[in-house]
């Protein structure tokens, strides 16, 4: 019984950790879909940039790395990143 509880706790911790990878916020789902097809979210989950820098970063993924992002997705992702992954994100 104790073993089962320990296992369950470990699984829940791992799950919570994966969820915490990127901050919650509008546009998170889109960002995960658009930005994790080539590399994992850990590639940018610790990055904190201003809007101009994120714009340049996403543009770099499209021009240099071959990411195909629709205009609508681009706007959503840029808004998400520059809002929740800025140097001073909302609390
Ligand atoms: C078409 C594939 C592709 C997509 C889609 C993609 N990337 Fe990348 N990304 C790459 C490659 C290739 C690298 C370089 C990997 C390495 O250095 O190991 C990279 C590296 C990065 C890096 C670290 C290196 C750097 O240039 O700063 C960041 C940050 C990053 N990507 C963010 C993003 C974000 C944000 C998105 C969504 C808008 C995204 N990526 C979508 C291919 C992609």
Core attributes:
single chain, 91 residues, mainly alpha, Cytochrome Bc1 Complex, Chain D, domain 2, binds heme C
Q: What is the N-to-C order of secondary-structure elements (H for helix, E for strand)? A: HHHH
CATH homologous superfamily heading: Cytochrome c-like domain
Distance between the termini: 39 Å
Average pLDDT rating? 87
Let me know the largest β-sheet. Answer: none
Q: Level of helix content? A: 55-70%
What hetero molecules are bound to the protein chains? heme C
Strand percent estimate: under 5%
Shape: elongated
CATH architectural grouping: Orthogonal Bundle
| Strand tally | 0
* Count of all domains: 1
Any idea of the CATH class? Mainly Alpha
Protein described:
By secondary structure, the chain is mainly α. The chain has one domain (23-91): Cytochrome Bc1 Complex, Chain D, domain 2. It is built from 4 helices and no strands. Helix 2 crosses helix 4 (71-84) and helix 3 crosses helix 4 (71-84). It is elongated, with a radius of gyration of 16 Å. The chain starts with a helix and ends in a 7-residue tail after the last helix. The mean pLDDT is 87. The structure holds heme C (HEC).
Secondary-structure map:
Blueprint: H1 2-20, H2 28-35, H3 51-63, H4 71-84
The structure holds heme C (HEC).
């Amino acid at each position: 019984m104790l073993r089962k509880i320990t296992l369950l706790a470990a699984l829940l911790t791992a799950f919570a950790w994966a969820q915490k990878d990127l901050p919650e916020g509008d546009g998170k789902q889109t960002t995960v879909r658009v930005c994790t097809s080539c590399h994992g979210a850990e590639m940018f989950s610790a990055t904190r940039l201003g809007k101009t820098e994120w714009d340049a970063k996403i543009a770099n993924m499209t021009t240099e790395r071959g990411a195909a992002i629709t205009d609508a997705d681009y706007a959503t992702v840029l808004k998400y990143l520059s809002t929740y992954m800025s140097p001073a994100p909302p609390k």
